Amino acid sequence: MNALCALALLCQAPAEDLSLRAVTIVSEGSRLAGEAAALKSNEGKALPTIILSHGWGGTAEQLRPDAAFFARAGYLVVTFDYRGWGASEGRVVLTKPAARGKPGEPFTAEVREIREVVDPLEQTTDLLNVVHWVQAEKQCDPKRIGLWGSSYSGGHVVYAAARDARVRATVSQVPALDSRWVLSNEPMKRRTYEQGTKRARGEIGYPAPGAVEIGNLKGAPLLEKLMRYAPVEDIARASSCATLFIIAEKEELFDNREHGILAHERAVGPKKLVTIPGITHYGIYREARAEAQRLAVEWYDRHLKAP
């Protein structure tokens, strides 16, 4: 989300009409850093809630302009960083075998924190844990929860909605919904399988934080995880969720017919597909940002605010 990052740096922080507070969400023992935003005038009210998740290499801070927009539309908005990204803790692994005592007792060990790698199965687990966490927020109406995702997280929200029926509505903009491209040809398949085998045998560790291996995207992927990630196959399971897909007419990073369009065809719940003409993938964060926000809030208003 490099384009989103550049634009966010130009945007002002939320104004005085908004309440913005830091929150902590625990996902499989790791503390995720998050923020909750709402209009100050809505204090004490149970609100429809939107959880925003960032895409490949992004951070929650970059989503503040979108969080402010949805909060001003009358929602409680939660943003967060995945494990190992932004201000969140990362998963830790032992760097060498440790001497342990009795089961469950503390022990001393040398560890390494995994940071800034792309693991879609871990990231979607984090998102699902944010759905759990928000249920106990006083300003959240647990019967009116929506998810918003962009680019890689456009697939994450579909994955989550297919596994948690409490999600009532999702917006997936310029979504990437199938990572099985890592098995798409023999050289790539060999690389993917080899990486998984070597990591399982302890011959390689995790990529360096923030490594760039695909285009200019920050964060090296764990290929053996990507091969198991295809939310386009899950969309029919989200039968009680209203799903909006917003795609770019001139999408250059993948074929819309195999991602947003195919997912829309397979969706069985309330659904809508909108193609924004004339833009490429990153145009959703630039010239089409306001239109995408408008489409999203109209969708949420219809499916989270309406009786």
Give your account of this protein's structure:
Helix content is 28%, strand content 25%. It is α/β, with parallel strands linked by helices and 307 residues long. An eight-stranded mixed beta sheet has the order 1-2-4-3-8-9-13-14, sandwiched between helices. A two-stranded antiparallel ribbon has the order 5-6. α3 (120-134) crosses α4 (152-161). It is globular and about 55 Å long. The two termini are 35 Å apart.
Write the layout of secondary structure elements.
Layout: H1 2-10, E1 18-27, E2 30-39, E3 47-53, H2 64-72, E4 76-80, E5 92-94, E6 111-113, E7 117-118, H3 120-134, E8 140-150, H4 152-161, E9 167-173, H5 186-200, E10 212-214, E11 217-218, E12 220-221, H6 223-226, E13 242-248, H7 260-266, E14 271-276, H8 289-305
Parallel strand pairs: 3-4, 3-8, 7-12, 8-9, 9-13, 13-14
Antiparallel strand pairs: 1-2, 2-4, 5-6, 10-11
Helix pairs in contact: 3-4
What brief labels describe this structure?
307 residues, alpha/beta, Rossmann fold, eight-stranded mixed sheet, 8 helices, 14 strands, 28% helix, globular, disordered N terminus
Poorly predicted regions are 1-12
Largest sheet: 8 strands, mixed
Number of strands: 14
> What share of the residues lie within helices?
25-40%
- The name of the CATH topology is Rossmann fold
Discrete helix count? 8
Q: Tell me the strand percentage band.
A: 25-35%
What order do the SSEs take from the amino end to the carboxyl end, as H and E? HEEEHEEEEHEHEHEEEHEHEH
Tally of domains: 1
**Head-to-tail CA distance between termini:** 35 Å
Shape: globular
Round the mean pLDDT to the nearest integer and report it.
Answer: 94
> What is the CATH class designation?
Alpha Beta
Assign the CATH architecture: 3-Layer(aba) Sandwich
**Gyration radius, in Å:** 19 Å
